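Slide 14.
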Amino acid sequence: MADSKADWIVSMRRADFAAAWAIAQRHMEGRDPARRDDPALPYHRRWVWDGRPYDGRHCLVRCYHGLGDSIQFARFLPLLAERAASLTVEMQPRLIDLMADGQGAIRFVPFDEAQPLPPSQCDLEITELDFALRSTPADAAMPYLSAQRAVLPWGSVGICHRAGGWDPARSVPPELFAPLCARTPCISLMPEPTSLPVLNPAGCPYDMRATAALVAGAELIVTVDTMIAHLAGALGKPVWLLLKSDPDWRWPLGERWTPLYPSMRIYAQPRAGDWEAVLAKVLRDLAVHPAAQAEER
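Slide 15: predicted structure.
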């Protein structure tokens, strides 16, 4: 194939979605149909949609990637539901209660890796929805998730320092958050105890509704590239995203903002591994953020 994955990544980072979709279309046309949803591959490496029509058909969306991916691309589910005869979403069990709120026309079922649902008239993987629908983030309503707000002190900042274990370079040493915790009331959004001086030293409950309530109740979220970032963005909360110097394909290079989440501000490493500079910039910007006034209240 003439187009490489690198070309697609460049297009996505530039928000040149038309170019990215053209690359994806050519890639799809060169695929072996026998390898669709190939059980010999791990779920996160499978492709599902083969270009078949979805208008007026019974559709099944499968969530084969991480929680953050499912949250990011869930914005497109209502757009597909408007065009399909019916829509079922096979989703990670942890997300269903949060996602199903206000989505009466969409049926959500838990994804069981050992026993996935049989094919429907049209199957798609959730991260294929923008390509299949030819829809950009601007085409979806924002915010597209809601949660009851936890009662927190005014000015509380939610913090998350660690990403998934498969990419340790996304995580920040927790001690670098100590100056932030000393500046304003903080809550940990990690599901484990912490020695940082936060309001909840036992950590955040391992429950998506409870986590969403803490995110919704905070004035600001400061997080690494993980599910919490997508949750905060989907809820429309101000969120400062801490990125490594060579970030994932979905984040722009050299920019402070992203079309994925209008309420998000990006703080990228100036050099690989330099989290100190990133947190120093966060502290400087926090000084003029409303959350910084907590001490005076």
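Speaker note: The mean pLDDT is 94.
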